[in-house]
Amino acid sequence: MTRFLYFFFIAVCFLFIFFMNNNMQKKQGFILYGASLLVLPVLAVVCMLLMKVSGFQPGPDFKYFFFAVLMSIAVLILNSLAILTGDFLLDALTGFHEKYNTENLHRKPISFAIRNRDNIRMFYRILFFLGSCLELYGVWFDKAAR
Predict the structure, then answer these.
(1) Residue 37 CB partners (closer than 8 Å, separation 6+)
(2) Residue 31, CA atoms < 13 Å, CB-side half-sphere
(3) What's the rounded Cα separation, in Å, for the pair 103 and 114?
(4) Over the Cα atoms of the chain, what is R_g?
(5) 72 near 145, Cβ under 8 Å?
(6) Fewest Cβ atoms nearer than 10 Å: which of 1, 26, 71, 105?
(7) Are 1 and 146 in contact (CB under 8 A)?
(8) DSSP assignment of the chain
(9) Has residue 122 got a pLDDT over 70?
(10) pLDDT for the residue 21
């Protein structure tokens, strides 16, 4: 079950990083992911209070899976925010130079960034995906959490 959920969250993270953020407006994405990051702890507290009120006594496995799912969702949200921030910064950097610095577009760092904008975007998306794989591995296979 742990391996299945690990690979499930890896697949969802892959979809979020490489496909989901491409179709989203940056302002809308920041609001959506920021609000969901604030709602996540509230949702966890509400679930714990409902368990306490109903008299449900969760076992150690339930507590582990509950914590792991919440942390996995937090990893997805934070990585999506980081990707949106990277997209915003890359577009702002290249857009500024294309608009206000047209006479120096031939110079080395600027011309490299503009020419390889898509490669730079793919590079940091791959880095964030590999980082999220490592984070999710720590969440799902940490022996100290059990």
Answers:
(1) 74, 77, 78, 81
(2) 5
(3) 14
(4) 20
(5) no
(6) 1
(7) no
(8) -HHHHHHHHHHHHHHHHHTGGGGS-HHHHHHHHHHHHHHHHHHHHHHHHHHHHHT----HHHHHHHHHHHHHHHHHHHHHHHHHHHHHHHHHHHHHHHHH-GGGTTSHHHHHHHHTHHHHHHHHHHHHHHHHHHHHHHHHH-STT-
(9) yes
(10) 64
Q: How far apart are CA 71 and CA 137, in angstroms?
A: 11
- What Cα–Cα distance (Å) separates residue 144 from each residue in 11, 38, 139, 140? 25, 27, 10, 11
Residue 65 burial (CB < 10 Å; 0-12/13-18/19+)? middle
- Alpha carbons 94 and 117: distance in angstroms, whole number: 8
Query: What average pLDDT score do residues 100-114 get?
Result: 79
> How many Cα atoms are found within 13 Å in the side-chain-facing hemisphere of 66?
14
Q: What is the pLDDT of residues 55-95, one digit of tens each?
A: 888 888 888 888 889 999 999 988 988 888 888 888 888 88
pLDDT of residue 146: 59
pTM, two decimals, is 0.81
